[in-house]
Structures are given as structure tokens and as C-alpha cells.
Specification:
Mean pLDDT: 93
Number of helices: 2
Oligomer: single chain
Number of strands: 0
Shape: elongated
Radius of gyration: 27 Å
């Protein structure tokens, strides 16, 4: 089997050709997108933490009412 007709070689060649067609983000777009994703993640994390705290406090109050 020759190297030119090898399936792996063809796959790598075609993959490289497809990567040349990709429109990549600029550095500024990448930074803005990253900041947006990190900000949203922090907000969602804060909301989940707040809900967790409120539910745990409510649970403690319910248990205290039944016990004491």
C-alpha cells in the first residue's frame, strides 16, 4: 500500500483542508467571548449558592419546628 493512498494520510489531508476553510475569531472577539462566559458562569454559580443557602436555612427552620 502506498503512502499516497493510505486512508490515514487522506484523512489528515482532508482535515487540514477543512481547517483552512474555518473562520477563526479575532483576539478581541475571543477575549470578549471569554469574559462573557466567565461572567455568566459566576452569576449562575452565585444564584445556585444563594438558593442552596436559602433552602438549607428553610430546612433547618422546618426541622427545628418539629423537634423543638
Amino acid at each position: 500500500m502506498s503512502l499516497k493512498n493510505n486512508a490515514l494520510t487522506n484523512y489528515i489531508k482532508k482535515s487540514y483542508e477543512e481547517l483552512e476553510k474555518v473562520t477563526w475569531l479575532t483576539r478581541k472577539q475571543m477575549i470578549q467571548s471569554s469574559i462573557l462566559v466567565i461572567s455568566i458562569a459566576l452569576v449562575v454559580t452565585g444564584l445556585i449558592a444563594l438558593l442552596d443557602y436559602l433552602f438549607s436555612q428553610g430546612y433547618i427552620k422546618v426541622i427545628e419546628n418539629f423537634i423543638g
